[in-house]
């Protein structure tokens, strides 16, 4: 993970069943196995630091279309939204309405209410608040496609700096009009997700963990019983502001016991996506890698937006 990975990484020999992951930038991913495809919410609009702090912001639909045009997600069945800050939700209406018109949106009640009536996709949000699990107890599996199930995990949004978390709050009623300022996109409850790709018998063929915000343990950890029976194949972890919480990423890596690690939401999202990616402010990636290396010795990557990965499905499935 010394420098961003730009090209394809293919660990699956020809003819081997595989899961494909594509990094779209910020919190955005495509997770795909055969015809089964889900998304994690991307951001392409990237308002500048000054605009996000002082001005009205809105989705740059042309930028969204440019970012998505290389990816066919018309049959995607779900969009995962871990929390409702603008860098995770601002572009979801365009993605959901134009590029992934069949996808349900999995998120909190705040996500649903932030999208409200103005977006045209608020009614497609499946609220996960009452369905989520935690380290002590599994939540409810949500079937999102014939071969995919998702479980929300109760998490928390760590501080951005000096123990301060920006844009805290909940949106308790459906919005009639879009949020204007970045501060109007309050976080609401935060969730991580387990994503299981299933075999023909309903067993777990491949398991992915996805988080879109740093959390101090035990928040964001997967149920011990589940990962005790079947560890995670790929863990998608967030380094941004990791040093604002205790024991991250060590605790989550020890909990998940992943075979491979990918880092997301690591790059500066105050610059246009066309710029060369650089680390987000106040985040020391070298220190993150050192911390992760204390408990994880497997392969890991720091993907540039657009990087693709193929991971083989091997071994016996588990229920």
- Main sheet makeup: 8 strands, mixed
> Number of DSSP strands?
15
Name of the level-1 CATH class = Alpha Beta
Percent strand: 15-25%
Radius of gyration: 18 Å
Spatial shape? globular
CATH architecture classification name = 4-Layer Sandwich
Taking strands numbered 1, 2, ... along the chain, how are they ordered across the largest sheet?
1-15-2-3-4-5-6-7
* CATH fold description: Metallo-beta-lactamase, Chain A
Number of domains: 1
SSE topology sketch:
Blueprint: E1 9-10, E2 18-25, E3 28-33, E4 36-40, H1 49-54, H2 61-68, E5 78-80, H3 86-89, H4 92-99, E6 104-107, H5 109-115, E7 125-127, E8 142-145, E9 148-154, E10 191-198, E11 204-210, H6 224-229, E12 234-237, H7 250-256, E13 260-263, H8 285-293, E14 299-301, E15 308-312
Parallel strand pairs: 1-15, 4-5, 5-6, 6-7, 11-12, 12-13, 13-14
Antiparallel strand pairs: 2-3, 2-15, 3-4, 8-9, 9-10, 10-11
């Amino acid at each position: 993970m010394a420098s961003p990975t730009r090209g394809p990484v293919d660990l699956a020999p020809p003819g081997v069943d595989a899961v494909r992951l594509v990094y779209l930038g910020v919190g955005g991913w495509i997770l795909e196995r055969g015809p089964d495809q889900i998304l994690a919410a991307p951001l392409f609009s990237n308002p500048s630091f000054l605009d996000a702090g002082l001005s009205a912001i809105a989705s740059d639909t042309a930028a969204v279309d440019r970012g998505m045009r290389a990816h066919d997600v018309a049959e995607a069945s779900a969009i995962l939204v871990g929390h409702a800050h603008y860098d995770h939700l601002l572009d979801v209406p365009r993605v959901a309405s134009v590029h992934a018109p069949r996808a349900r949106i999995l998120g909190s009640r705040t996500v649903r209410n932030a999208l409200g009536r103005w977006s045209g996709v608020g009614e497609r949000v499946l609220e996960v608040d009452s369905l989520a699990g935690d380290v002590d107890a599994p939540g409810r599996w949500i079937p999102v496609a014939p071969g995919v199930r998702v479980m929300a995990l109760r998490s928390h949004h760590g501080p951005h700096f000096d123990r301060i978390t920006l844009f805290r709050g909940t949106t308790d009623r459906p919005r009639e009009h879009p949020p204007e300022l970045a501060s109007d996109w309050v976080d609401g409850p935060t969730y991580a997700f387990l994503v299981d790709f299933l075999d023909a018998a309903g067993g777990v063929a491949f398991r992915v963990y996805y988080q879109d915000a740093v959390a101090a343990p035990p928040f964001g950890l997967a149920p011990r019983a589940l990962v005790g029976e079947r560890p995670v194949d790929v863990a998608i972890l967030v380094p941004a502001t990791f040093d604002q919480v205790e024991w991250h990423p060590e605790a989550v890596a020890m909990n998940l016991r992943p075979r491979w690690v990918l880092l997301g939401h690591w790059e500066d999202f105050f610059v246009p996506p066309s710029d060369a990616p650089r680390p987000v402010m106040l985040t020391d990636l070298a220190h993150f890698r050192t911390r992760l290396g204390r408990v994880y010795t497997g392969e890991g990557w720091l993907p540039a937006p657009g990087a693709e990965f193929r991971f083989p499905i091997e071994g016996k499935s588990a229920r």
